[in-house]
Amino acid sequence: DGGITQSPKYLFRKEGQNVTLSCEQNLNHDAMYWYRQDPGQGLRLIYYSQIVNDFQKGDIAEGYSVSREKKESFPLTVTSAQKNPTAFYLCASSTWDGNYGYTFGSGTRLTVV
Amino acid sequence: SQQGEEDPQALSIQEGENATMNCSYKTSINNLQWYRQNSGRGLVHLILIRSNEREKHSGRLRVTLDTSKKSSSLLITASRAADTASYFCATDAPWGAGGTSYGKLTFGQGTILTVHP
Q: What is the mean pLDDT of the segment spanning B27-51?
């Protein structure tokens, strides 16, 4: 079955530590996205990529980094520069023009301990 | 930047009743989409309506789009307890050089729908 997989489901980060969230899709989608969701809030765009080896900052990119070395994979690193990283992180993919909607992963809940 | 605003923030109804959620946005769009999110889960795409369409149906869902008022509504008919979830509208507005790129969605804050058995 085609889909998008995020791992891990839960992640705990210590102060000053970098952590990487995984996102893999087998839908042959060109575009991939990372969103952050805070409790009771909508989604805010962190980074997006429309093609391999290219990505663009979204609205809240500070403290985050990404790579797109393969079409299937779009990992997100939450760096120590991100001062308030506790949130629910959602990865999504779509065709290059998004004209058929996004497919979302099941999310990673990141908590700072 | 928050493109869409949804109304109401929360809606509580009985099974069998209809539920209507509204979304307003600020700029011209290519399309508008509705998503559902069950608690603690990812979002599920429900329906997409293009800027040149006025109404679209999918099963018990009916979406309308009024580009002159920059607003959309989602109607769920004959609601069920399983429809309990948060519902988000998302707009695909032109971006990039010349405003010719698409596919980057901006989400509203969502409407929390509770359907009581």
A: 94
Cβ contact A42–B107 (<8 Å): yes
Name chain B contacts of A96, Cβ cutoff 8 Å.
103
Model pLDDT for residues A31-84, shown as the tens digit of each residue: 999 999 998 788 999 999 999 999 999 999 999 999 999 999 999 999 999 989
Phi, psi of B99 (to 5 degrees): 60, 40
Q: What is the least distance, in Å, from the CA of B16 to any CA of chain A?
A: 26
The secondary structure of B87-111 as a DSSP string is EEEEEE--BSGGG-B---EEE---E
Structure confidence at residue A95 (pLDDT): 87
> Which of A50, A88, A98 lies at the smallest CB-CB distance from B105?
A98
Assess contact for B49 and A99: CB atoms under 8 A: no
Residue among A102, A106, A83 at smallest CA distance from A21: A106
